[in-house]
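Reopening closed ticket. The problem is back. First fold of the pair:
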Amino acid sequence: EPSLGLAIELEAARMGTIAVEARRLDLARQALRYERRQPAASSPVAIGVSTLYRLAFRDHPYGVPVLGDERELQKLTLKEVQDWYRARYGPRGALVTIVGRFDAAAARALVRRHFEAVRATTGPAAVDPAVEPDPTGERRSRESVPVPFQVVLLGFRGPGAGDPGIAPLVVLSQVLNGPDGRLERQLRPRLPSAFLVTGDFEVRRDGSMLFCALGLDTPGDSLRAEAELVAQIERLGREPVSDAELVRARRQAEARLLFEWQSSRGRALALAAHQMLAGDASSAATDVERVRAVTAAEVQAAAEKWLAGRRRNVVWLASGA
């Protein structure tokens, strides 16, 4: 399998032979600036979600944008990058995931041959970040964005990957969000100025974020819009979802998981995540079963616990905010 051998050889070479020098650091800075200007990172919703993470994770690194900000980018020195590369970027912290049709024994031999030749990292092992304290009250922020409309986002920090509370939150997010979710069906008709209704549930190792967002083209609707959004979310903790809602939400959550597994990249990411977080790549196959088994009572309990007012983070985005 020459293509697999070449891919493994290139990845091992990238890990062991990168020349960390000033010219490359300058190019990397330019690449990061370019990436931050792309729609995926610079849209109002993306800015709002980044702000939600900053509010929800005050002590944890999740509160810092992955792409950084200009101030931190300017402060970064060549020595800091070189030290990090020597201490962190090596076989000790690597997980190699291969998916597709291949000979497992031959693939293992290729990995050993190329990666065992990579020099070991020389610094201390990475230290787990401090646990984020439980929030004690609502947190708010107003941000200025160069758009002629307003966006309000509500976000709630949840448990990390592997927590048994994840599956009910996955289904809960589908109850709220999507083309058939409560926000689209019940909130948009009550708010004619809402031109955008969206949301998602993002899961990371040490925490998760369930968020909803409304875009408004009428400034006077802002207070009402936030109140309506809060009311829909709080309702989930007071009463169970209907059977029809539960079936729809579970099916959509299941379809989303299965769709992610359709591509080689999606399967690789799922297997790698479960191996890294749970020590068992095969446990990825149980995600669908856990979603299928979620009950209305579990969704209500998850909403009552994780979407409580003291856990709420609110971000408003507007021109000149």
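Second fold of the pair, where the issue appears:
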Amino acid sequence: TPYRFTINKESTFSATDIPPIVVSNTVIYPQIGGKDVQSLIFEGDKEQWFSSKISLKGYDIIRSSEIKKMVWQERPNNIIWLMMDDGRLLSLSYDRQTNFQAWAEHTLAGTDVKVTDINIIPTASHDQLWFQVERTINGSTKYYVETLGRFPKEGELDRNDYIFSDSALTKSIAGKTFTVTSSSGLLVTCVAHGLIDTQIIEVTNSGGTLPNTLATDTNYYVKLVNADTFRLALTSGGTSIAYHAGSGTHSWRTKVINSHTHLVGETVQIYYGGMQHVNKVVASNGTVSLDHFQATDTVVGLAYEGELETLEPSAPDNQYSYSKRLLNLQLLIEDSLGIKIEYNSLSEEILFRSMLNQMGVKIDLFSGKKSLSLSGIGWETHNLKIISNGPFPMQINALVIEAETGGT
């Protein structure tokens, strides 16, 4: 009955009041103090519970704060996400069957950034990880609810939609067709155009004859916007262009991205068509102006760098006192672009674009081996950093460092 039960003490390792997570037949919880993670494992063949600390390899990134919340993301990868009291976000890739544990710290982009809450929302295809994020934007503290983008390896995203920026929005700025009529100046009709006052557009002659006051390859400023109509001027806020003869349906395209008021004053990273645009600052009205009209689908957000730092190579067998230096690095890369290497005070980008690639056209994601000479690294530095450089995927499947030893 509800009044007749037995509570057994299965472990002497204490727990905080933070809800645990359950992974298969394992209960995972923070130990009192919030700096250690314990796993309580039930082994059915022995009908016993066993305790094991799984935070030893992550203690260096846990110790400066306390664990405030943990959530379990089962799909697409087995990851335990941990929110720390100081607002940092940690992850533990965890697979008990293969004895695989890998800790990482996730530094979100922006100023004075803190993660204030995390949670998982399961869907039919994957588990969504959601954050509440605190940032300083344009001098004020803002709170946003954000979600982690899909992994490219899931095969659910077109390359144009990859999101490798923080607090990012995906926007289409593809142009639309329009017609013109005379009504106190040239009136442009375009259903649900989505343009705003002062936005810059360019017109093309897609059918018929352009009014003789309009020309291709010219910047025009939108004004007097209604839902389905607008007018044009040669300068921002200038006089509307008068109507002259023209016929047919034409099209426009823009180089201005709207609706980024949440990042006003911030320098943002821009990804379009599988390529990277130079960084821009979000204007006070939430717009981002590109340098050209080539973009259609864009991803705009705060830039961050994914970083992998190698450990010092282990000593050769039976050699206990020696000097060493790093000579060469070989990377096995899969479906990636934008990678740089840092060692000592040097920074070197791995080249993926060749003379055979046309400028202004995206290149394929690279899979294969890349080699880099580290001959200038000297005898003092015994580790290096591999860094994602830009809004692109970086997947390193293996790395080999060739080192030279000698001396006493």
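Update: turned out to be a display glitch only; the data is intact. The CA atoms of residues 356 and 363 lie 10 Å apart. DSSP finds one helix and 30 strands in the chain. Please close again.
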